[in-house]
From TrEMBL:
Residues 18-78 form the HTH tetR-type domain. InterPro entries: Homeodomain-like_sf (IPR009057), HTH-type_TetR-like_transc_reg (IPR050109), HTH_TetR (IPR001647), Tet_transcr_reg_TetR-rel_C_sf (IPR036271), TetR_C (IPR011075). This is Transcriptional regulator, TetR family. The keyword Transmembrane does not apply. GO terms for molecular function: DNA-binding transcription factor activity; transcription cis-regulatory region binding. It comes from Glycomyces sambucus. Keywords: DNA-binding, Transcription, Transcription regulation. It holds the Pfam family TetR_N. Residues 41-60 bind DNA.
Length: 202
């Protein structure tokens, strides 16, 4: 899948450097969940990760740089899209993956903290936007393949179908506080598929 690039700390290292990166990003995520972006300190992240402060300052430079690399790592490690051969089941797989992520005991609070941080920090917002562009690009082909099979109209905006599926899940997660469960995910997938077939996104 596409790799997020262009932000501090977003090269993909190996060996000891990879282990340092993993430890620092985990420590940064813990601090972000605990304190919000305003309470994250690079020296404290280094202490939590048990690495030298110089390493953290040299490699990431700023807290937004750390968050950008955290999102890059999430994009790198995200599961590839489903290839079931049918739009309905592909979209159901995507909805299930989003639900699993948002309901996860660590990933859910981490995404909430990053999204909150993006509202007040332009670099974090840019990194978040890159992350979601990567995920949309990963899943849009399931809609394009449906177009090629004749299941949905020519000219259907694949990215918009993916956004339409995601939106009700994130609305419950971030705004309404209504239950977020398998039934909600299933309805989001069915609604996005039905709208696509009806030509709403063409």
């Amino acid at each position: 899948m596409n790799q997020v690039t262009g932000a501090p700390g977003t090269s993909r290292p190996g060996g000891r450097t990879a282990r340092v990166r993993e430890a620092v990003l985990r420590a940064a995520g813990d601090a972000l969940v605990d304190k919000g972006i305003g309470g994250v300190d690079l020296a404290e992240v280094a202490r939590r990760a048990e690495v030298g402060k110089t390493t953290v300052y040299r490699r990431w430079g700023t807290v937004p740089g750390l968050v950008a690399d955290m999102l890059a790592e999430m994009a790198e490690s995200s599961l590839p899209r489903a290839r079931t051969g049918a739009l309905d089941t592909d979209l159901a797989a995507l909805a299930g993956l989003i639900l699993k992520t948002l309901a996860d005991a660590r990933q859910g609070p981490l995404f909430r903290a990053i999204i909150a941080a993006a509202a007040s920090d332009a670099q974090t917002a840019a990194a978040l936007h890159r992350f979601y562009r990567v995920r949309i690009e990963e899943w849009a082909p399931c809609v394009n393949e449906a177009v090629a099979r004749g299941d949905v109209p020519e000219g259907t905006d694949a990215a918009e179908v993916v956004r339409a599926l995601s939106a009700p899940l994130y609305y419950r997660f971030l705004v309404s506080g209504d239950p977020l469960d398998a039934g909600v995910a299933e309805r989001a997938a069915v609604a996005a598929s039905a709208a696509a077939r009806a030509g709403v996104y063409a």
